[in-house]
Amino acid sequence: MLGRKIHDLRKARGLTLLEVAEAVGTSKQTVSRYEKGIITNIPKEKIELLARALSVTPAELMGWESDALYERYDNISPVGSRRIPILGEVACGKPIFASEEHESYMCVGDDIPADFCLRAKGDSMIGARIYDSDIVFIEKVDMVKNGEIAVVIVGDEATLKRVYYYPEKEKLILSPENPKYEPLVFMGSELEDIQILGRAVAFQSVIR
Prior knowledge:
Number of domains: 2
CATH architecture of the largest domain: Ribbon
CATH topology of the largest domain: Umud Fragment, subunit A
Strand content: 25-35%
Largest sheet: 10 strands, mixed
């Protein structure tokens, strides 16, 4: 049932009726009617927006057999996609516990070199347009260039920051993108408890 699928996808993504409604350009009452099966003939111009808000393709949302069925709609084109796991939350502020339990999966375009994604928590990266609850797509690497945004494990905790590493000084700076937060600075033996998990290659904002 389409309504149940919309409801389950929304809950799995941690979205409210209002957030989905704003992404689709409709009211939360209308989204609720979608989920309850009161409205089953969803306008074609809303299908792509709804699928995008729920991080699936229109084909996956509507239960079509293949993306070739996009040809039914002159404003929708086939999009190559694959599923990658959401591994939990990453702090945009103070580090939080790094969990690798798969909450759910996201669909990502074939052109984005992401291995997994994380849900941002906090406001320390708003200067990079990454807000609380946004999905950040991560390419798994163990080293990044200075100035790149990365997920960094500090002990057993994860944080999302700009990375600046100075090997000659044995110094690592994890810099936020919000002036109300101070950079995290690590030196010498402190670096032994730090690991770069991957670089941020894309993000998906929750419509507010």
